[in-house]
Amino acid sequence: MNAFLRLVAWLLALTLVILPVVAVIQGWAGAERWPLRTLRVVGDLERVDDRQLQAALMPHAQRGFFAVRLADAQAAVAGLPWVERAEVRKQWPDVLVVHVVEHRPFAWWGNDRLLSERGRIFASKGVAVPEGLPRFDGPESRSADIVALYNESRAMFAPGGLDVRTLRIDRRGSWSLTLSNGAELLIGRDDAKLRLARFARLLPQISTREGQRLDRADLRYTNGFALRWQGLVPASAVATQVQDKT
Question: Which tens digits make up the pLDDT trace of 152-194?
């Protein structure tokens, strides 16, 4: 019996030691004694709203220094518009530090999402989107390929004063592109870069037809392409085949 009483006494003493620690960690007690008084934001923020950031962290910070759950606080910040990555940590005695990396939009992705400069696709809802972004579309797994061809094609058409407005790849792997003058280029699945380079080289020779605007160019030919013009013929288009003799 004496052994039993000693065991009970030992368990009681252990409980009296552990319970306050658990209470502090769980936020049941100690929030007033060890409060988080300072929120320190690290990062070059342009689009993340300060008030939304504070509102997201406040419920977690109120638990106190020892009880704040950093993973939950970090998830709350990461869910805000324009936040690409967030890291939350504590700094003794009363500081909550949050490091935020913003999305920097590079292009539209489809109709309602954006592609960041880091290659992340994120929702556009609740964000003020800069004007003049190009539009991309295709399987998300091909985002790096789309960005690469976009950069290469811009360099090809820049000497002629043209830019790339849209770039798409469909599920079959077929490319299409729209230039800043409104011309649509059907590129196909194979040798996209080579076909674009050939067309860009010959474009100054074929875009000088007075009174006509190039509407579409089909580059899916081995040694040339088919052109469709608008302008001289009302409500219709004229198709022209051009061969590369080089």
Answer: 999 999 999 999 999 999 999 999 999 999 999 999 999 999 9
Distance CA(32)–CA(10), nearest Å, equals: 30
Six token digits for residue 201:
């080289």
How far, in Å, are 31, 33, 49, 57, 229 from residue 24 at the CA level? Answer: 7, 10, 31, 19, 75
- Which residue in 146, 144, 179 sits closest to 164, CA to CA? 179
Q: Give residue 207's pLDDT.
A: 63
Reading the block at residue 98, the tokens are 């949050």
CATH assignment of 134-243? 3.40.50.11690
Secondary structure E strands in 103-171: 105-109, 113-116, 121-123, 135-137, 164-169
For the domain made up of 31-102, give the CATH fold.
Ubiquitin-like (UB roll) (3.10.20)
Name the DSSP letter for residue 33: T
Residue 165 has a CB neighbour count (10 Å cut-off) of 17
**Cβ neighbours for 39, distance < 8 A, ≥ 6 positions apart:** 54, 57, 61, 95, 96, 98
